[in-house]
UniProtKB/TrEMBL annotation:
<dbReference type="InterPro" id="IPR018649">
    <property type="entry name" value="SHOCT"/>
</dbReference>
<dbReference type="InterPro" id="IPR010982">
    <property type="entry name" value="Lambda_DNA-bd_dom_sf"/>
</dbReference>
<protein>
    <submittedName>
        <fullName>Uncharacterized protein</fullName>
    </submittedName>
</protein>
<feature type="domain" description="SHOCT">
    <location>
        <begin position="92"/>
        <end position="117"/>
    </location>
</feature>
<dbReference type="GO" id="GO:0003677">
    <property type="term" value="F:DNA binding"/>
</dbReference>
<dbReference type="Pfam" id="PF09851">
    <property type="entry name" value="SHOCT"/>
</dbReference>
<dbReference type="InterPro" id="IPR010744">
    <property type="entry name" value="Phage_CI_N"/>
</dbReference>
<dbReference type="Pfam" id="PF07022">
    <property type="entry name" value="Phage_CI_repr"/>
</dbReference>
<dbReference type="GO" id="GO:0045892">
    <property type="term" value="P:negative regulation of DNA-templated transcription"/>
</dbReference>
<feature type="domain" description="Bacteriophage CI repressor N-terminal">
    <location>
        <begin position="12"/>
        <end position="74"/>
    </location>
</feature>
Length: 118
């Protein structure tokens, strides 16, 4: 695998946003705690966003190959094992999703709490 550190960063940023499940660039910039303008600058510069790729890999399990090139699988095969979730956990997840949908918790808080349940 070859990574071009001088171009292609905009596509990598798009894949990062996809990996997190955000619907917009603004939603992602809010998650990062930065302005939309700051993220826009990264898009315009088009440089490989190493720091954001590493953070995304850690938080979502996305593979480096997929993030960097768009090739291969989103998650490595060994991480895609089926998880058995109890009815109680499902109820808690639904409550968390409702809180997120109502704006009572942020997407980041939802992800962190979901990670604790699963």
């Amino acid at each position: 695998m070859s990574i071009n550190f001088n171009s292609g960063g905009a596509k990598v940023l798009d894949r990062i946003i996809e990996a997190y499940g955000f619907k917009s660039k603004v939603e992602y910039s809010n998650y990062l705690g930065t302005s939309a303008a700051s993220l826009s600058i990264r898009y315009r510069r088009d440089l490989f966003p190493s720091d954001l790729v590493v953070k995304c890999m850690d938080e979502t399990g996305a593979s480096l190959q997929w993030l960097a090139t768009g090739e291969g699988q989103f998650k490595p095969v060994e991480q895609s094992k089926e998880t058995v979730i109890s009815d109680e956990t499902l109820v808690k997840l639904e409550r968390l999703a409702n809180l997120r949908d109502k704006g009572a918790i942020t997407e980041q808080e939802f992800s962190e709490l979901k990670g604790q349940l699963i």
